UniProtKB/TrEMBL annotation:
One of its GO terms (biological process) is proteolysis. Keywords: Carboxypeptidase, Glycoprotein, Hydrolase, Protease, Signal. InterPro entries: AB_hydrolase_fold, Peptidase_S28, Ser_carbopepase_S28_SKS. Belongs to the peptidase S28 family. SUPFAM superfamilies: alpha/beta-Hydrolases. GO terms for molecular function: carboxypeptidase activity; dipeptidyl-peptidase activity; serine-type exopeptidase activity. This is Lysosomal Pro-X carboxypeptidase. The keyword Glycoprotein applies. The lineage of its organism: Eukaryota, Fungi, Dikarya, Ascomycota, Pezizomycotina. Pfam families: Peptidase_S28.
Length: 577
C-alpha cells in the first residue's frame, strides 16, 4: 500500500490495530472476557474490518519495537492493571503508530507529551549578569531572557516576569504579561532564574557535586539580578528611563516578587503575584499550616466526588497496610519500584500517588507540557473505575508518570524521582538547594491520617537533616526570613499595590495570603485604591491565570483576567493623576 496515506486513513489503521491487539491480548482463557472487554475499548468499539486491516502486521511490528515506554513495560508485567482502557496509553501509542505509518507527514501525528513540551517559536537574548552582587566574586554569567516590545509605547510600563524554577524558559508571548502590555502600551520581559535552564554560573547544575559554585544562589543575589537587569533594560528601551515596573510571578516566583515589592519599593510600582504561598516558610515543627496543602487537596477531591474520595482513601489505607505487612517483593512488583524496599524506604511509596493526586488538582486545566489532559477528572475516573485499591494507586501513578519516560519508582530518593516524573520541568537539584538555603517549605506538604492519604507524615526532620547532609546548610527559621524581608502578616496587611490571585483547585492556596487585612477587590471596603488585595477565582488551577489568554479559558478565569487588568489600570492612572 502507498505510504502517503492521509491522516484519516492512518488513524483508522492505528485504531484498528489497537483494537486487534487489545482483543487478542485479552481473549484467551475466558470465553466471556473478550466480549466484556470489548465494551471498554471506547473509540475502537465500532471499528469494522476494512482496507486498513492488511497493515496490521506492520503496526504490530511497530508496537513491538516501542522499547522506551514505561507503560509498555508495566503492561508486560501487569496486563490486568494497564492496557488500552488507559487513556494516556492509547493517546501516546496512537501517535507512535501513526508516525510509523506516515514518516513524512508530521502534520498527521497528534500531539504527544514530548511535542507539547517543546518551546514555542521565540527569540531569546542573553544579559551579562554578575555572579555575586556583593563583591565576593567578580565573575559573570549569561542570563537568558525573552523580551517583547510589540505593544510598547515610549514611557509605557515594563511588565517584568520572574522566571521559574525549571527549564526551558518560556517565551514571554505565552504569558499573561503580554496581554497586559497590549492593554496599556507596555513592554513585557521574562528573565530566567539563576542556576536554572541556560543561566548557569560556572555551568553548575548539581549542588551535591558543585557545592562551592552554588554558594552564590542566595535570595539577595536573585533579587539583585532583577534590579541589575531592569536598570540596564531601561537604558536600552526608548523613553523607558521613568517607566513604571510591574513585576509578576507565579508560585515560587510570586513569592520572590512579593519580597521584591516589599524590599525595593523605589524600583517597582506594583506586583501581580499568582498562586503564591507566602505562608510557605514553614520551619516550625508545630506550624499551623504544616498540613495545609494536602488537607486542601483532600477537601478538593471530597467536594468533587465523594465516592471517588472514599475509594482513593481505601487505596492509601491498603498501601498503608501493605507497607506494615512488610511483603517487600509484592510491593516492588505492584508499584514497579526500582529496587526492593525495606522498612524505611517502603513508606516512601506513598509519595508518588500523593504527588500525582496533588498535581492533578493544581493543574486542573489543559496546559502544555503535562502528560495528562483534564487531570483531576482523570484521577477521579480512575478511582471510580478501579475496584482493587492497590491497582487504583498503581494506575494513578503510571497514568501520569508513564508518558514522562519514568521507568521505575525510586523509593531511595522519592522527592527527586517524583519531580523527575512529574512533567513539570522543575530542576530538582537547584530547587532543592534553594529550598534549604532561603525558601524553606519544610513541613508544608505533610500528611494527616484523617485525610484520604491515610498516613501520618511529618517531614520536618527528614528535610532539615537532609539539607545538612546534602549541602551542609542549616535551614533558616521562617520567622527570621519573614522579618528580614518584610513579609510578616503585619507587613503584608500594610503593603501597597500587590495583587495576589489564587484558584479553587490549587492546594497551594492553603498557604496563600488569605487572612484578615488582605482584601478581595469585590468586597473591598478600603477606599485606598493602592491597598494590596487577594482575588480568589472559582474553578482555577495553579498558575492558570499566568498563561496568555485564550478563547477556551474558563469563564471565571476570563473574569479574573478582566479584574486584574482593571486593577493595573487604576494603579497606573493614579500615578498619572
Amino acid at each position: 500500500m502507498d505510504m502517503s496515506l492521509d491522516a484519516v486513513v492512518a488513524i483508522d489503521v492505528a485504531q484498528a490495530a489497537l483494537k486487534y491487539l487489545y482483543l487478542t491480548s485479552h481473549a484467551g482463557g475466558d470465553g466471556n472476557r473478550a466480549e466484556a472487554l470489548n465494551d471498554r475499548v471506547g473509540p475502537f468499539q465500532d471499528l469494522e474490518y476494512g482496507p486498513s486491516w492488511p497493515l496490521i502486521p506492520r503496526v504490530i511490528e511497530t508496537w513491538r519495537g516501542i522499547e522506551s515506554s514505561a507503560i509498555k513495560m508495566r503492561t508486560e508485567q501487569h496486563s490486568d492493571l494497564f492496557f488500552l482502557n488507559h487513556t494516556s496509553f492509547v493517546e501516546m501509542h496512537l501517535s507512535y503508530i501513526i508516525a510509523a505509518l506516515l514518516p513524512t507527514a508530521s502534520w498527521a501525528v497528534p500531539a504527544t507529551f514530548e511535542s507539547r513540551q517543546s518551546e514555542p517559536e521565540c527569540k531569546y537574548d542573553y544579559f551579562t549578569q554578575k555572579v555575586d552582587h556583593f563583591g565576593k566574586n567578580d565573575s559573570t554569567f549569561q542570563q537568558k531572557y525573552s523580551l517583547s516590545t510589540e505593544f510598547y509605547k515610549p514611557g509605557g510600563p515594563i511588565f517584568y516576569m520572574q522566571g521559574a524554577e525549571g527549564s526551558p524558559l518560556g517565551c514571554i508571548d505565552t504569558t499573561a504579561a503580554i496581554s497586559w502590555a497590549e492593554e496599556v502600551g507596555g513592554a513585557a520581559v521574562v528573565l530566567e532564574h539563576r542556576y536554572f535552564g541556560d543561566s548557569l554560573p560556572f555551568n553548575a547544575t548539581n549542588p551535591r557535586e558543585q557545592l562551592a559554585e552554588y554558594q552564590y544562589l542566595t535570595l539577595d543575589n536573585v533579587l539583585e539580578d532583577v534590579t541589575f537587569f531592569l536598570d540596564d533594560l531601561k537604558t536600552k528601551l526608548e523613553g523607558a528611563t521613568d517607566s513604571k515596573v510591574i513585576t509578576n510571578g507565579c508560585s515560587y516566583p510570586a513569592w520572590l516578587m512579593t519580597i521584591y515589592q516589599q524590599t525595593r519599593a523605589a524600583k517597582v510600582h506594583a506586583t501581580i503575584a499568582q498562586s503564591t504561598s507566602v505562608e510557605g516558610l514553614i520551619t516550625e515543627v508545630d506550624h499551623t499550616f504544616k498540613y495545609g496543602v494536602n488537607n486542601l487537596a483532600n477537601n478538593i477531591y471530597r467536594a468533587q466526588n465523594y465516592e471517588a474520595w472514599e475509594k482513593i482513601s481505601n487505596g492509601y489505607q491498603a498501601l498503608h497496610d501493605a507497607v506494615h505487612a512488610a511483603d517487600y517483593d509484592k510491593l516492588k512488583s505492584d508499584f514497579g519500584l526500582c529496587e526492593l524496599p525495606n522498612e524505611e524506604t517502603a513508606l516512601n511509596i506513598r509519595i508518588y500517588p500523593g504527588f500525582v493526586h496533588l498535581l492533578a488538582t493544581q493543574y486542573n486545566y489543559n496546559t502544555t507540557g503535562l502528560p495528562v489532559k483534564d487531570p483531576l477528572n482523570t484521577m477521579i475516573n480512575i478511582a471510580l473505575d478501579e475496584q482493587d485499591p492497590i491497582k487504583l494507586l498503581n494506575r494513578t501513578v503510571w497514568t501520569w508518570m508513564g508518558p514522562t519516560g519514568t521507568k521505575c519508582l525510586n523509593v531511595t530518593d522519592p522527592q527527586q524521582g517524583a519531580y523527575a516524573g512529574s512533567g513539570t520541568g522543575l530542576q530538582f537539584g537547584s530547587f532543592n538547594y534553594l529550598n534549604c538555603a532561603f525558601c524553606p517549605g519544610v513541613s508544608g506538604g505533610d500528611y494527616l491520617n484523617t485525610t484520604m492519604f491515610r498516613f501520618n507524615y511529618d517531614s520536618y526532620h527528614y528535610v532539615v537533616d537532609g539539607c545538612k547532609e546534602r549541602y551542609n546548610i542549616t535551614v533558616p527559621k521562617g520567622e527570621d526570613i519573614r522579618s528580614k524581608y518584610n513579609i510578616t502578616r503585619e507587613d503584608l496587611q500594610k503593603s501597597k499595590r500587590i495583587l495576589w490571585t489564587g484558584g479553587e483547585f490549587d492546594p497551594e492556596n492553603a498557604m496563600g495570603p488569605r487572612y484578615q487585612g488582605v482584601n478581595s477587590p469585590i468586597f473591598d471596603i478600603n477606599a485606598d485604591r493602592d491597598v494590596s488585595r487577594y482575588l480568589h477565582v472559582d474553578g482555577m488551577g495553579h498558575c492558570e491565570d499566568n498563561h496568555a489568554p485564550k478563547d477556551t479559558d474558563k469563564e471565571t478565569v476570563k473574569a479574573a483576567r478582566k479584574k486584574t487588568i482593571e486593577v493595573i489600570r487604576s494603579w497606573l492612572e493614579e500615578e498619572q493623576e
